[in-house]
Amino acid sequence: MTFIKMESYTIQQRVQIVELFYENQRSVKNVFRKLRDFYGLHNRPSERTIGRIVQKFQDTGSVEDKKREKYSRSGRSLEHIVVVRESVHEEPEMSISRRSQQLGLSESTTWRILHKDLALKAYKVQITQELKPLDHLKRRSFVNFINEQPADFSQKIMFSDEAHFELGGYVNKQNCRIWGEENPRIIHEKPMHPKRVTVWCALWSGGVIGPYFFENAAGEAVTVNGVRYREMLSEFLWPELDNIDLDDIWFQQDGATPHFANETITLLRTKFPGRIIARNGDVNWPPRSCDLTPLDYFLWGYVKSQVYKNNPQSIPELKDEIIRVIGEIEPQLCQNVIENFNKRVDVCGAARGGHLADIVFRV
Q1: What distance in Å separates the CA atoms of residue 294 and residue 337, rounded to the nearest whole number?
Q2: Quick one: 32 exposed, middle or buried, by C-beta within 10 A (0-12, 13-18, 19+)?
Q3: Residue 362: left if φ>0, alpha if ψ -120 to 50, beta else—which one?
Q4: Distance CA 310, CA 307 (A)
């Protein structure tokens, strides 16, 4: 979602918002709905912006921006430090370039005041999975279940998941720079519908099982449905389990549709009776909890970072790289990942089922 500041709207647009506010029972929500006719669903001002514009009019009788006093470019004076501090307090999200322009300071002076005099740092907004209202309770219930088990219980959980790997990988534009006297005008082309493979793996304290590729006889990726998922369990996973003592191993899967079909759960119970952590399983896996799944918070990101280093040019090369990288993962690394799962469970409990702030922000 793109947030547009109040200053981005013209005086006429702000006046329209104020008029709509008084014409619609002084309700910000009503104004928000009305503006859909003028701006569309996704480009209209947010309720927060509408509220700020109305509040400014009620406080000052005007919707115009307050004109800031321009200061001479005399460096990091005490006066400039105070002005920058007040500016940050009013609008902490403003860029250095925009702040320098408003205050009449050079960008280098503003930067030095922010970093050296005010000891401030620029923090990125972190993006994480949205949690629905009932998710907190379900996550707390799962945390309580884990905490009621023996200390080594997480060592006995086999986590599973699927992921897509696109041919061509991705280019991180933030880390891609080309120095030169002229712009080389290099463009990275990406197909609209790139070829990809769909991979299944399981991770537990003993290592990684997989990869398994969901594909047809021609080697083309296919959609994972209930029938194909059960074929994978019977024809791939079951033989892999022959050398594992399953007497106390639990199987975990997320709430994807093919996973919780009655036929799938019945099949899983032939190998994991009373030991299924899943939707419709013996213990419910909380929805939208990729921050608790080792494959989501570790395996897929790690494997992709290694696979795309060699820039595979074909589907066979891509599959070979995935097999190679996963095959090189040592059991000790899996042990460390499971230990991290325990920490995440503790943080989730402390957050009462909310986001793992201590993990996300590395507290």
Answers
A1: 7
A2: buried
A3: left
A4: 6
The tokens for 28 are 């910000």
Distance CA 170, CA 79 (A): 47
Per-residue model confidence (pLDDT) at position 183: 60
Our separate counts of H helices and E strands in the chain read: 16, 5
Label the pairing between strands 196-204 and 276-277.
unpaired
Decide if 211 contacts 326 (C-beta within 8 A). yes
Of the candidates 133, 138, 134, the residue with the CA atom closest to the CA atom of residue 286:
138
Structure tokens at 235: 């024809």
CB neighbour burial string for 38-61, b if at least 16 within 10 angstroms, e if fewer: eeeeeebbbeebbbbbbebbeeee
Across the chain, which has 363 residues, the per-10-residue mean pLDDT values are 58 90 91 87 86 90 72 71 88 86 89 90 71 90 95 95 85 47 56 82 94 92 94 96 85 93 95 94 93 93 92 93 96 94 93 74 43
Q: Answer yes or no: are the C-beta atoms of 55 and 87 closer than 8 Å.
A: no
CB 162 within 8 Å of CB 198: yes
CB-based contact 265:285 (threshold 8 Å): no
Backbone angles phi, psi at 162, to 5 degrees: -115, 160
Alpha-carbon span 82 to 76, nearest angstrom: 10
The single residue listed with the structure tokens 């918070």 is 297
- pTM of full prediction above 0.70: no
Task: Report the distance separating Cα 194 and Cα 296, nearest Å.
Answer: 22
Q: Contact, 256 vs 287, CB < 8 A?
A: no
CA 28 to chain centre: 30
Length of the chain: 363
Could you give the C-alpha distances from 80 to 28, 115, 278, 295, in angstroms and in order? 37, 14, 58, 50
Confirm if 102 and 87 have CB atoms less than 8 A apart: yes
| Cα 242-245-251 angle, rounded to 5 deg | 90
Q: What would the two tokens of residue 252 be?
A: 């975990």
